[in-house]
Records
---
Amino acid sequence: MALSPEMKKFAEPFIKEYRRVLRAIKRYDRIAIFRHIMPDFDALGTQMGLATWIKDNFPEKEVRVFGDNHVTFTPRVYPEMDTRSEDWFKKPFLTFILDVGNESRIADPRWKKGKFIIKIDHHPKVEDFADVEIVNTEAAAATEIVVNMLKNFKGDYKMSPEAAEYFYTALVGDSGRFQYSSTSEHTFQIAGELIKSGMNISKTYQKMYQKQLDDLYVTAYVLNNFKVSPKGVAYYVLDRQIQQDLKITTERGKENVNIFANIEGINAWCSITEDNKEPCWRVSIRSKEKAINGVATMFEGGGHAQASGAKLNSIDDLPRLIEELDKLF
Ligand code: AMP
């Protein structure tokens, strides 16, 4: 079926790169797919979606997915990542790096052993480290670029419901269920392309957002203990003791951050979670309109205009973080 004008326009700057990607997929028998540490829906969904798509269309290829598993999405939404011995990396393979713009955040250092390296990302560009770089910061999710690319490939390729479901989780996750301002006409067209595959939308949402009864106690704690700054920055802090009491891991500390979206007078919102291994505090920052990634960069982080991550080396730095955010409003 013919592509829409938006899907053609989105592809225009990358036509040469798309061709190089398809040629590389055809050339290599062994393909390894990587993405960022502490993965989210976009990282895992794009990784699993692409792996499934390649296996569906090139069944003779050996495709592997690497990186850390997710504390709750694995195995509920995504299968366990591959564990391979060092021997696997000795024979030539093609590397894909998805949804990450800086080397230090790639979840497994063995991506470097790939013969040919392809990066596809939607984070602001930090550094070049691949043979083919496809970066579009206007995409709501890395998946939006990958699916656009697959649909622009010349040839008769199929999108199975399984591959589409993975890609859909990524698109929904990073666009905040199509609420963030990064959501465009093209984002919805990609969603439409995925739905055409016959995937089951309601089952996909159920898998993504299913909660346990215990999760309600975490939400109750957050609602009873959050603070709001003079300029409307809402935040909550979960130290190690509270995480233990609430029976959650550090990775799950940010799960309630979006409770503060759509509250009048709240302009930005953050979760601050003490790391249970390292002496630092992990910060997730979200915002209604103003770009907060500049502030995230000041605190050893980065990310997107409306969704960024950062780190505090001491909880004493928290007032400074909130002051910097307050200055935006
Ligand atoms: P999080 O709050 O961890 O969910 O992160 C929100 C977004 O910011 C995700 O897209 C992350 O990939 C990105 N992000 C988080 N930490 C960093 C960092 N240190 N550098 C660049 N991007 C980041």
---
Amino acid sequence: MRTTVGIIGAGPAGLLLARLLRNAGIDAVVLEVRDRAHVERRQRAGILEQGTVDALRAAGAGARMDREGLRHDGIELRFDRRRHRVDFPALTGGRSVTVYPQTEICKDLIALHLEGGGPLLFGAEALAVEGADTGRPRVRFRHEGREDVLECAYVAGCDGFRGVSRGAVPAGIGRTFEQRYPFGWLGILAEVPPSHDELVYARHDRGFALLSMRSPAVSRLYLQVPEGTDAREWSEERIWRELERRFETADGWTLRRGPVTQKSVTSVRSYVHEPMRHGRLFLAGDAAHVVPPTGAKGLNLAVGDAVTLARALAHERETGSAALLDAYSATCLRRVWQAERFSCDMTTLLHRAPDATAFEDRLQLARLERVTSSRAAGTDLAEAYTGFPLE
Ligand code: APR
Ligand code: PHB
């Protein structure tokens, strides 16, 4: 099999890249190890920066997002049983975010891709990227029990944090930066209208909690739990009781309960692989970087990488110049590190480390007081949350 761009992974990065390349008349083949139902069900945050909304629209993938996405003009920060709203448009000169689940973005992009007859192979596991630093890179993969080779001009490694493509960068060339946090997130989906019309980020002595949503009828809620927690240790009753305690306010706010339809634990980590390119292999999205989920930047970074890479490949096709491809890694990494900084700040602002000292607790509360009372500090958070424009 032969193509111009071999794309490994059909998450948001790979799917959007495939769409953008098709629009630019560049052929691509997408290899995805999981089946379609799995990709379309995977629960991930869907907080879209304006740049992400614009990119999906420009790719011709924004129709349902425009109908069903919800504009959010703020978030609530909750601590000491008090509620504080961060008003995005007021602090940033009009910016906001759109809530549209990542599962729906993937469904929309898959449908468009298959409608266009684009080759997207589900159940196709990339085994290795070979010859990345030669003129003819190849992806070895297994599909329907047979091994095959995809010969490409370029390979896009969009296979997430646990994919194989990052491994094709020799250890002496790549450098990784990593930070672990001593906690994870227990997330649930519940069939109950969200108890608040905006997201609530709560800092509590017992740990962080987050109220989010997937639709007007479905809530998404998270609890900070110790690293290594098994979701089975948490019964529905235990989860709701803990959420109620962490969200409790002095003004009698109540949390609506409903049937839990999904429950899982996600890890919290910061990770960056530099550079995001090796020869003709380009890493995009979680394959190159992971942010802690506080602030929901992962999807936005994946979209930014896909847009930057598609633009660079189209530029090379039109002009013969590899200048944008050469700049790809540095261009993406500037945004990545801003997102790492913000996500790390949000995480330490709101979570309680298991060994936190009384001094650290007081400092954390002072930081929260500052963010919610100073226009300058509030603006810093609001600007980063709503996102910086793509370069
Ligand atoms: N061969 C083929 N496909 C693979 C392989 C492989 N060896 N390994 C992984 N994949 C697939 C996964 O099954 C997944 O569908 O690559 C895809 C990677 O998708 P994501 O993990 O969604 O990564 P990305 O597209 O970069 O999107 C990042 O996902 O984790 C969230 O918060 C993050 O929102 C962000 C988004
Ligand atoms: C989510 O809805 O899953 C979500 C929202 C905001 C975050 C993280 C996750 O910061």
